[in-house]
Structures are given as C-alpha cells and as structure tokens.
Amino acid sequence: MRFAKIVFLVAGIWGVLVLTPLYFIFDRIGTMDPPPITHPAFFYGFVGAGLAWQFAFLVISRDPSRYRLLMLPSIFEKFSYGIAVAILVQQGRMHPNDLVFGGIDLLFGLLFVIAYFKTPRFTGRS
C-alpha cells in the first residue's frame, strides 16, 4: 500500500500545483495561445472538476485499501485527458508542447493501474 499512498499523494499535490494557477490566468491564456477562451463556464468548470479530483487523490492516498474502488474512476480521469491531448496534438488542434501535461497524466494513469492491482481489497476489519 505504500506505493499507492505515494503515487496518489504525488498526483494530488502535482495536480493542485498545476491547476490552481489556471483560476488566475484566464485572459492571459487567450493572449499567449490564441484564440481567447470564449466559454468561461466550461473553462472554470474544467478547472474546478480537475481540482476536485486532486482532492480525491489526496483522500485515496490516506487509505488506499479503503478507497481502492475510487481508483477506477481516477484511472479513467487520467487516461481520458492524456489520450485526448495526444489525439488533439496529432490532429494539429493543440501545440505539441501540451504533450508534456498529457504525458504526465498518462504516466499517472499507468501508475494508478499498478497501484490498483497492488492494493489489497478493503475488508472493513482493522
């Protein structure tokens, strides 16, 4: 379980550090990587949902066995973003530099899969 604790703790901290600044650079994103964002509710909704998952990762890191089933949607969260970035870059709809973040999510997704299989099922007994 030590592996799962470390993986989910690192993933949660990383995600909070990467996503939180997005709340403060909305206008700058459109300037640095045009066109400007035209649907702020989608943008802030993405950031908020992403941050919620980071807190879920931190919860999982406290007791991986108890929250083992929550690892399954966590795996989906990581792979869904990483795969989407890879496809969008391949289509020329995102900058290749964005593969760094997509790749990190794919790596965490793989580590989450390993953590899931290495973590014993929760039996409810201490």
Helices and strands in order:
Blueprint: H1 2-19, H2 26-32, H3 40-62, H4 71-90, H5 99-118
Helix pairs in contact: 1-3, 1-5, 4-5
Description:
- The chain contains five helices and no strands.
- The chain is elongated and about 55 Å long.
- The longest helix has 23 residues, at 40-62.
- 70% of the residues lie in helices and 0% in strands.
- The protein has one domain.
- It is an all-alpha fold.
- The chain starts with a helix and ends in an 8-residue tail after the last helix.
- The protein has helices at 2-19, 26-32, 40-62, 71-90, 99-118.
Overall 3D shape: elongated
User: Order of SSEs, N→C?
Assistant: HHHHH
Q: Rg, please?
A: 16 Å
Strand segment tally:
0
Biggest β-sheet strands, sense, barrel: none
Query: Helix share of residues?
Result: 55-70%
Distance between the termini: 15 Å
The parts where pLDDT drops under 50 for at least 5 residues are none
Q: Please give the oligomerization state of what you see.
A: single chain
Number of helices: 5
Q: Report the sheet-strand fraction.
A: under 5%
Class based on secondary structure composition and strand pairing: mainly alpha
Mean pLDDT rating: 95
Overall domain count: 1
Task: Fill in the keyword field for this structure.
126 residues, mainly alpha, 5 helices
Quick summary:
This protein has one domain (2-118). Helices cover 70% and strands 0% of the residues. It is built from five helices and no strands.
